[in-house]
Amino acid sequence: MAHINLPEGIPGILGPMAFSPDTAKPLNELAEVLLRGPNSLSPGEREMIATYVSSQNDCYFCQTVHGAVAAHHLGGNETLIDELKRNFESTAISDKLKSLLAIAGKVQKGGLHVTSEDVERARQHGATDKEIHDTVLIAAAFCMYNRYVDGLATWAPRDPAMYRESGRRLAEQGYVHSTDHLPQANANSRGSATHG
Fold first, then answer.
1. 155: CB partners within 8 A, 6+ apart
2. C-alpha neighbours within 13 Å on the C-beta side of residue 174
3. Which end of the chain is less congested by CB atoms within 10 angstroms, N or C?
């Protein structure tokens, strides 16, 4: 049960976004820019960074839905995403992406864990300053998203088909309007928390 009175039956981050549409809008706009905006990293690569960070934060909802988005971008390759979460260094991805995931993993632990050697490794594998910047920002943002989802004890369904469908929709339609279909929480219920 969620720590506050979120709309029932709405999974993961969507529950708090329905509860607070004013904050949902900029959060969705940030996700859109980070994961789908113009970039030399593909949307699939950026979704893999979000998935990896979410898995390191043990956020089931975020790692599963963004893993599904990444898999959709990769032609449905869910095995690659599962391997990436277990050990990206042995996964069949580019050395550049491996070096960026290493940076993302350091950011997940704390920004000061990123070293000049980590950045140099990424540069040696062809990463640009913009790609390094965006990797750090995606990792930092997903630490926030993950803590938002889990800090409110949101509901995370276990049905893989639901995540595949959400992943397809987000990959094809994006994040900006991803909450337009949600009912807004009753304003009278926003001031009270539920205790289980």
1. 2, 9, 10, 11, 12, 15
2. 14
3. C
Whether 6 contacts 182, CB under 8 Å: no
pLDDT tens per residue, range 147-176: 999 999 999 999 999 999 999 999 999 999
Q: Is residue 85 part of a domain?
A: yes
- How far apart CA 6 and CA 22 sit, in angstroms, is 15
* Residue 116 CB coordination number (10 Å): 7
Closest CA to 60 of 167, 137, 163: 163
How long is the chain? Answer: 196
- 0.85 exceeded by the pTM? yes
CATH number at residue 105: 1.20.1290.10
For 25, the token pair is 């809008």
Distance from C-alpha of 66 to C-alpha of 59, rounded to nearest angstrom = 11
Flag whether 1 is in a domain: no
Is position 30 within any domain? yes
Query: Is residue 192 assigned to a domain?
Result: no
